[in-house]
Amino acid sequence: MVTTDQAAAVEPAGTRVLLIDTHSLFVRAFFALPEMTTSAGVPTSALYGLSVLLLKLLREERPAGVAFALDAGQPTFRHARSAAYKAQRAPLAPPLRAQFDLLPRLLQAFGAPRFVAPGFEADDILATLARELSAGGTPVRVVSGDHDLFQVVDQQVDVLFVGARGQPPKHYDLAAVTARYQLRPQQLPTLAALLGDVTDNLPKVAGIGERTAQSLVARFGDARGLLAHLDQITPVRVRAALSQAAPQLLATEELARLRRDVPLPPGPRHAPIDREHLLRTRALFEELEFKSLVARVDRLLARDAAGSEG
């Protein structure tokens, strides 16, 4: 599904498109902020936190366009392949669930396209959009708090990683990802298959530490390459651990690898957030009693008006 409202931008935009990992950032905002409610008792902390981030991005990035990727809220192909995948995650807390019901109104107010693909995760949608846009020469910045998105980084795509509360977001381009992991971005699913991932409940290969895993992936490329050269791996205990875990290693690598071929409907892949949508957003902020954010929207509107006059 994709929905968008069409309108002309109020000022010349930059060239970069922002792809927003919406649900990830929404949940992160809920846990990062203290409880907030309207005077009527409607919980709003996640809505507020995501709105703060979006306004900051519009102010600082001045993107050419924006798109929102969302999870469908139902099992994906990964759940079908592994009953353990993300099985440890607790149900949404009622105050967060209530805000999920209001999230569509917030995204509609901002006006950028919203993408949902049943059977896939938002990360797969982001990877697909990044591939499509970068292949056409459009620079892309993925905004997420999920390390899994680092695997989409290339010459035209980087990630603005929104980390823990109190920590400023950090840009990860190709050089930064390589420096952090000593690997190419496309090799990160293999690293995850060796080390496991607590967040996604992916199993690790017993007895393999981070340095050993990085060395193995750097040398052999991926899980199939590694398993094809077991006779070259020392010490013997590492070779034995990999041999014993071979089916798990291949399956976990496949679960960790983002899909870049999600079937998305035809239509615009991004759109600018223009004056009309800022006004709609301002009205919603007034309803949600986000007084400080109303003032921030007013400053954006004033900047845009000055830019159009110039």
Mind explaining what this structure looks like?
48% of the residues lie in helices and 9% in strands. The chain has 310 residues and is α/β, with parallel strands linked by helices. It folds into 2 domains: 13-182 and 265-309, 3-Layer(aba) Sandwich (Rossmann fold), CATH 3.40.50; 185-256, 5' to 3' exonuclease, C-terminal subdomain (DNA polymerase, domain 1), CATH 1.10.150. It has a 7-stranded mixed beta sheet. A hairpin with an 8-residue loop joins strand 6 and strand 7 (170-172). It is elongated.
What is the number of helical segments per DSSP (H or I, 4+ residues)?
13
The appropriate CATH architecture of the largest domain is 3-Layer(aba) Sandwich
Domain module tally? 2
Biggest sheet strand line-up = 1-4-3-2-5-6-7
User: What percentage of the residues does DSSP assign to strands (E)?
Assistant: 5-15%
What is the overall silhouette?
Answer: elongated
Structural class: alpha/beta
Which spans have pLDDT < 50 for at least 5 consecutive residues? Answer: 1-12
CATH superfamily of the largest domain: 5'-nuclease
CATH topology of the largest domain: Rossmann fold
Percentage of residues in helical conformation = 40-55%
The description of the largest β-sheet is: 7 strands, mixed
Rg estimate, integer Å? 21 Å
Instruction: Compute the average pLDDT.
Output: 92
CATH class identity of the largest domain: Alpha Beta
The H/E string reads EEHHEHHEHEEEHHHHHHHH
Distance between the termini: 38 Å
